[in-house]
Design a protein that fits this description.
Strand order of the largest sheet: 1-5-6-4-7-3-2
CATH topology of the largest domain: Cytochrome Bc1 Complex, Chain A, domain 1
Organism: Luteolibacter rhizosphaerae
InterPro entries: Metalloenz_LuxS/M16, Pept_M16_N, Pept_M16_Zn_BS, Peptidase_M16, Peptidase_M16_C
Number of domains: 4
Family: Belongs to the peptidase M16 family.
Distance between the termini: 30 Å
Radius of gyration: 29 Å
Largest sheet: 7 strands, mixed
CATH superfamily of the largest domain: Metalloenzyme, LuxS/M16 peptidase-like
Protein name: Insulinase family protein
Pfam families: Peptidase_M16, Peptidase_M16_C
Strand content: 15-25%
Number of strands: 24
Number of helices: 31
Length: 991
Amino acid sequence: MRNPAPIILSLLLAAVAAFFLIRAPEAPKPAPPPAEAAAPAEAPAPEVPKTEEAVKPPPPEVAKTDTSVAEAEPKTWPQEQSDIPADPKAVFGKLPNGLRYMIYPNSEPPGRVSLRLHIATGSLMEAEDQRGLAHFLEHMVFNGTKHFTPDDLIPKMQHLGIGFGAHVNAYTSFNETVYMLDLPSLTDEMLGLGFTVMRDFGDGAKLDPEEIDKERGVILSEKTTRDSVGMRLMQQQFDELLPESLLPKRFPIGEEEVIKSAPRERFVDYYTRYYTPERMTFIVVGDVDAAKFEGLIKENFSSLANPAEPGKEPDLGKITPVEGVKAAVFSDKEVPATSLGFTFVQPFSPVPDTRTRRLSKLPLELAQTALARRFERIAKTEGSPITGGSASRDELFNHVEVGSLDVAVAEDRWQEALPVLEQEYRRVLEFGFTDAEISEAKANLLNAYQQAVKTAPSRKSEGLATGIARSISDGSVFSTPEMNLEVIKGGLDTATPETCHAAFREFWADKGFHLVLTTKEEPDNALSTLTSIYEESRSKEVEAPEQKRVIPFAYSEFGTPGTVKTRKEIADPGLIQCMLSNGVRLNFKKTDFEKGSVRLLARIGSGKLTQPKDMPGFDFFAASVFNAGGLGKHSNDDLQQILAGRNVTGGGFAISDDAFTLSGRTTPEDLELQLQLMCAAMTDPGFREEALVQFRKGIPEIYQQVRHTPMGAQMEMESWLHGGDFRWTLPEESKLSSYTLEDARKWLTPALTKGYLELSIVGDFDESTMLPLVLKTFGALGPRETEKPALPAARKVNFPKAPAEKSFTYDSKIPQGTALVVWKTEGWRNNTKLFRRLNILGEIFSDRLRKEIREKLGASYSPNAGPDGSEGLEGYGFLASESVGKPEDTKRLAEVAVTLGAELAEKGTDEDELDRARKPILAQIEKSKRDNSYWLVTVLSQSQEQPERLDLIRGRDADVASITPKELSEIAKKYLGQKNALKVQITSEAK
C-alpha cells in the first residue's frame, strides 16, 4: 500500500504553487510526457472581430503608461552565469523591451507546437487590497481582450481543434503566472490565433467591469472547490513556521472580501505594473524552424511596452530560524492520517546553477533517499508505529530553505512513532549510512540520468515546454540530458557513505527545528508531552545501522521454453498476434514513439467477475496484499535492492471488472528481467505477513477519508448505480480487516496459474530479440485456458430505475457539494460506436453547462459531462453531468443540468456545436496514434479476446468524422429526457 504523504511545509508549498488553474479542475502535472509541436508559417494576426463594442463605449483601455518601447535593462539567462552550457538546439533571445524568449525545435509529436508565456508575477506581488487578484486576473484575460470578445474566444479555439483544458490552460502561483497553449496544427490561421491570444494575454485584457462582476462567482466557486482540510492546515503551518514572512498572507486563491468587491482599478493597477515584458519569458517547443518563429515572436511582442513605474519586487519578510526544539500541534478531526515531522527554515539567497552547485547538492540528496528507504523498511516490521517516512530539502521562491524529516503514523500511535523518528534522525547523525543504502540510491539516480539520455529523442513537446516554464523561476540551466549525466556522474563516482553522512550532518547538525504533530484531535498537554517524549528518546543510545547483503535475483528459469504455434501479421493497424504452445496469446507492435522504452500488459482470467460471493472490498484487499507481498524468494525490500539501477517495474498487479492485470515498463536492455519479474509474480507470489500488517495498518486512514471526504459518498453512489452488488459496495471496517492472505491466495492462484492470458508488448524492441525472451518466460509457463468463460450472470447488475433522486452525505465542515445527474444508456460493452457519439454529445453538453452554470450563474467552477460505463458488464453505461459548488446549491445545479439535458433532447444540436466539440477530439485522436499507452491498452490488449476491436479501430477516424447533428440529436432524444434522469446530491454535513 502507498504510504500517505505527511503534511509538511515543503510538500504543501509545492502543491499550492501550481494549484490554481483557470479552466480545468486539476493542477498541471510537472512536465508530463504528451505534447503538441508545430512547423512555422508566416501568419498575420486575425482580423479584429466585430463585437458589441461597436454599439456601446468600451471600458478604458488597459494600456501601459509609457507608450514608447524603451529598451529594458538586459536580463540574463542562467547559462550566462554558469559553466554548464545550455542545450545547443535551443535558441535564446531578448527583445529590446526586456522580454526573453526560448525556441526549442522538437519533432515529437510532428506537426505541432507548444507555447508558454511565463510571467514572473504571482500572489506575492499583490497589495493588501489585491489579495486574490493575480489569480482572478488570470481568469479575466479569457473574458475579453483587444481581439476577442468574451463570447468568441473559446468557440474560435474549438473550431480549430483547441480544447479548453486539453490544449489551453493557465495557472497562478506565489511568484509566477503561466499561460499554456498547445496548437494541434501549423496552419496560418492556427498560428495567427495562437500568437494573437498570447499577445493579448500580455497587454490586451479589456477588464470590462461587467465581466469582472460575472467572474466573481466563478472565482468564489473555485475557492469552494479548492477548500480542504489540507489547505486549511497548510495555512496554519505557514503561520507557525513563517510568522514574519509574506508567504502566509498571500495564498493565491486570495480573500473572499477582495474577490467579491475589488473594483476594476485594482485589477488595472496590478495588470499594468506586473504584466510587463521585463517579467515575461515566451517559450516555443515543437516541430519548428527556429528562425521563422523568432521572426513571429519579434513581430508580435516587440511592441509590448513597459510602464513608467513598474511594480517592484515585494519584501518577503524575515525568516527566523528557531532555536532548540519548538513543539507545534495542528489538529482537525478530518485529517486523513496523523504525521510527525522535524522541520527547520532558514533564509536562502539564489545561487547560480553551476557544476559545483549541482555536485554540492548530490551527497545530501543521496542521504535523504537512503533515509526515506530506511523509514520504509521500518514501517514493514511487525508492530511498527509508522507507515512510511521521507526526508527533503527545498529552496522556495529564492527566499527560504526548508529541511524536513517526516513519518506517517499508524493508527494515531504518535507517542510510539516519535522515538522512531528521533532515533533514526540521531542514528544518521552519529553513524551515517551503510554501503548498501548508498549504493542503492546511487544506482537508481545514475540510471535515471542514463535513461533520460536514451529517451531524449522522443521527449514530447508539451512536457518539455511545461518543464521549461517551471524552471524559469528557479534559474536552472536548460542543459542537455548528456550534459546532466556528465555532471552528475562525476559526483556519483566520488560519493561514499562518508561524504553522504558529512552532508547530512552539515545540513541538520546543530539546527533548531519545529517538532510538528498533525493529528485528528489535539491531545491534552500535547506540547509538553511531545517535548518530554522527545527528550526521553534522546537519552537512549542508538546503534549503527545493520549492514545488509544484496542477494541475486532468484527467478531466471520457468521451464522448457515454449514455441510459436500460430503467427498472424496484421498490416492495419500494424501489429502481430501469436498463439504460443502453452495457450498464452501474444500481441506486439514495434514503435519509435518512446525511444528506449517498452510497455507490457498481461490480462489474465476474469477479474471481479469471479470475486468470491459476499466479500465486498475483497478485490482492493487482494490487489494490495499481492503487490505488497513481493515474491516467494524476495520481499519487496529485497527487490528494491536487487533491482536498483535496473529499469523494471513491480507491483503492477490490478483487478478490473473482467480481468486481472500485470503491467510493466522497461527498456530493451532490461526486457528479459521485466518478463522474469512478471512471471515470478504469477508463479510464486509472496503473500507475506508484512503485506497483511501494512494493509491493516492503513485501514483506519482509509475509513477516515471515507467518513470525512466525498470519497465515501461517491463509493456509496457507485454501489447504488451497480444495484447494490457486493463487488461495488464498501464493506464494514471489521469486514475488511477480517480478510486473510489465504483468502487472497485461494481466489487469485487458479487464474494466475491456468487462466486465459493475453500478453501485449508495445515499444522500442526488435522481434528477433524480444520473442525468444517471451518464449523462455511466458512461453515456459504451464498450459493456459485458451478461451475465457462467458460468465453471463456475473456480468449483470441492476441499474437504478429513473426518474429518481438520491442524496449522499459525509461528515465535514468544508462547505462543499456535488450535483450529479445520470442518464442510463446502452452499456459500453460491444457499443464502441455509440460511446464515440456519447463522448461528443458529452462535450456539447459540457459546453452548455459551462455557459449556463459557470459563466452565467457563477455557481460551479468546472461543470462537465461525459459518458461512463464498463466494458466487462452487460448493459452498464450512462452519461452523467457533474457540478461542484456550495451544498445549498446542489439541488439547483442538478435541476439546471436536467433542464439543459431536456433541451438537448427536445431541440437537438447543430453543425456549429458538433464542429466545436469534434475538432478537439479529432486532434486528441491524431495525437493518440503516437502514444504507446493507447496502442497497448486500447488496441492490442484484448485484440485476440475481442477480434472485432481491430475493425473498430481501423474505422475510428472515419466513424468520428461521419457523425452528424441528426445522429446526436436522436441519441439525446433517446436518453436525455427528464424522465430518464437520476438526480444525485453529495453534500458535506458537519457532525
